[in-house]
Amino acid sequence: MRKAAAAFCLAPLLAGTSAAGEAADPTPGNVKRLGTDLYELTAPALVARTEKCAVSAPSAQATLQRQADGSWLRFAEPPGLCRVIDLYAPVLIERGEYRVVLTRAEAAGWYQVDDRELYLNTVGCVIAAGSATAFLSLDRDGGGRLRFPGGLGCRVVRVYRHLLR
To answer: What total of structural domains would you count in the chain?
Structure first.
């Protein structure tokens, strides 16, 4: 088991990643609805959390736009405009075992890691209000598992960097 301070050094990851998604992409891309107010963009690969978005199609064409009044997803069909309140980009972290402290994020199945700009998209995780310590095992592809003291666990779909708030 690696020590959290040495293995989960985030400064190089945050400083060295590009600012993908921070500029408008004029070309509409495919958008997949992951859940209420949660959309996965395919080009560039991002996840957007929206505010009371009425577009409920399972997939659609949309453009991510940055304007003076914020960031928006502009849907072509069905037409719609949704405010983006959080934007996440996938990151790869070295394969291995990490001790982490998780805090539940506002979107279902999402957890903030160690009060940093990293978030986990999970399946089957249930953490009560507050925070919880867990062991994160990451695979080469960026997914993995969380194990909690007491033996409970869940699947980690991907690790993301928070780009926008």
So the answer is: 2
Residue 52 has pLDDT above 70, yes or no: yes
End-of-domain residue from the set 72, 87, 102: 87
In which domain, by residue range, is 108 found? 4-11+91-164
Amino acid identity of 86? Answer: D
Q: Cα–Cα distance between 72 and 83 in angstroms, integer?
A: 5
Total count of residues recorded for the chain: 165
Tell me the C-alpha distance between 44 and 61, whole Å. 13
Which of 39, 65, 87 finishes a domain? 87
- Does the pTM surpass 0.70? The reply is yes
- CB-based contacts of 39-43 (< 8 A; 24+ apart in sequence): 39/73
